[in-house]
Amino acid sequence: xxxxxxxGLGRFGxxxxxxxxxxxxxxxxxxxxxxxxxxxSNIVTHAVQADATDEDALKTLGVSNFDVAVxxxxxNIHANILATLILKELGVKSVVVKAKDQLHGKVLSKVxxxxxxxxERDMGMRxxxxxxxxxxxxYIELAPNYSxxxxxxxxxxxNKNLLDLQLRSRFGVNVxxxxxxxGINISPRAETEIKAGDTLIVMGDNDSLDELxxx
Length: 215
Ligand code: ADP
Prior knowledge:
This protein has 2 domains: 3-117, NAD(P)-binding Rossmann-like Domain (Rossmann fold), CATH 3.40.50; 133-213, Regulator of K+ conductance, C-terminal domain (Alpha-Beta Plaits), CATH 3.30.70. By secondary structure, the chain is an alpha/beta fold. The protein is elongated. The strands form 2 sheets. A 6-stranded parallel beta sheet has the order 3-2-1-4-5-6, sandwiched between helices. It has a 5-stranded antiparallel beta sheet with strand order 7-8-11-9-10. The chain has helices at 11-22, 34-40, 55-60, 77-89, 102-110, 119-132, 162-165, 167-171, 206-214, and strands at residues 3-7, 26-31, 46-49, 68-71, 94-98, 115-117, 136-143, 146-152, 174-180, 183-185, 199-205. The mean pLDDT is 93. It is built from 9 helices and 11 strands. Adenosine-5'-diphosphate binds at residues 7-13, 30-33, 36, 51-53, 72-76, 79.
């Protein structure tokens, strides 16, 4: 089982730590604010009041034994960058950091962050994509211009199979999975028939996915 550190227990960090703990992962939660530490102490394996920009404090906590650290210090960019640098230097394999904007993200990648996330930008994009097309249930960006979307099957798909629909040749997209009342089919075959209430999980470039949505 991988072991996680979560640094900064604001709304984002708290939610990351709680979700991991609920899935029975070992989580060390760190914050300078005693109240935040108290609040999460019954939920995670260890909750410690410490300053993540203090290298000796992190060393004492044995952070180098952890596989993944999530840095979610928000307001204080200086502390966010310094904590990232120290965690990398102490040998944490993977450091995931919440960034404010692209420039901040650039600095984080220079100091060794393995993954940079922009929660507000990403959530905004997902919500906007949900709003503009009522049949899009979920939207995940894979890379700039490539996404995975969940699309509710509509009546011009019912009782047709994937071969009939020809989504790959017509739109250049791939159906990765189909969710139906019976569960999820993660490797649908050409003869898999689409039924009312099904959801298609489709991967492709954004323009092609837009075309498919308008179908
Ligand atoms: P969010 O937008 O996710 O709520 P915040 O910026 O409000 O994020 O919260 C960041 C958290 O990080 C706060 O709880 C704050 O006490 C904590 N924090 C700030 N600086 C440090 C630091 N040097 N070490 C550890 N935790 C810190």
